[in-house]
Amino acid sequence: MNELEVSPGKITFRWAWQMATIMVVATLLVHFSGTDQKSPVVYLVYVPFVFGLMMSIKQHRDKDLEGFISIKRAFTTGFRYASLVSFVMGVFMFIYLKYINAEVFEQSLQEAERMMLSQGKSSEEIETGINMARSWGVFLAAISSSIGYTLLGAFLSLIAAFIFKNPRPIYIEVEREEL
Predict the structure, then answer these.
(1) Is position 170 within any domain?
(2) Which pLDDT score is estimated for 50?
(3) Which domain covers residue 17, as residue numbers?
(4) Contact 88, 20 (CB under 8 A)
(5) What own/partner pairs with CB < 8 Å and gap ≥ 24 does 127-134 have?
(6) Which of 24, 69, 89, 130 has a 20 to 30 A CA-CA distance from 175?
(7) Is pLDDT of 179 > 70?
(8) Taking residues 35-49, what's their average pLDDT?
(9) Three-class secondary structure of residue 68 per DSSP
(10) How far is C-alpha 165 from the geometric centre of its chain's CA atoms?
């Protein structure tokens, strides 16, 4: 089947929702288990992200495209997957930092305040900066999380495109019997 005839939408959508759900559950498990936010265990959330990206490309190639896929199609499939996951994770990160684990954001504000004090900023500058961060910080953290997942997904999609590429031959030789 021709690549232009088949969209990777269904496969990427299914994998993105499955892996985003697993990532949300893993994040909540890490939080409610009392694991320190600076622990390397926190980075295990990226494992389902990478797995889903690879599987969405592989499944699109094998099921929809008869085992053939170009680098461009493999990249766009992975990037679509990453874009969907990044949107879901951005929304989740906003909810997580605003309502579930607001202490993490408050700790980062306290750390920023200590850093500004060590830089010799005036108390008025510190107060203005902290108030601005308090009003926009959670939203900006969610946006930067979403952008981070998208950029990571683009990078991994490029790598995966070269791993899974299998271009369709231009022509296929057909054996025939001589008369």
Answers:
(1) no
(2) 96
(3) 3-164
(4) yes
(5) 133/109, 134/109
(6) 69
(7) no
(8) 87
(9) coil
(10) 21
Q: Is residue 179 part of a domain?
A: no
Angle, alpha carbons 174-178-179 (nearest 5°) = 135
- Are 8 and 64 in contact by the 8 Å Cβ rule? The answer is yes
pLDDT of residue 95: 94
Q: Is position 29 within any domain?
A: yes
Written as one letter, the residue type at 63 is: K
Say yes or no to pLDDT of 80 above 80.
Answer: yes
Could you give the number of structural domains in the chain?
1
E strand or H helix at 14: helix 9-32
Q: Is 28 helix (H, G, I), strand (E, B) or coil?
A: helix
- The answer to whether residue 172 is domain-embedded is no
Instruction: Supply φ then ψ for residue 166, to 5 degrees.
Output: -155, 85
Query: Residue written as tokens 């031959």?
Result: 169
pLDDT in tens, 111-124: 877 888 888 877 78
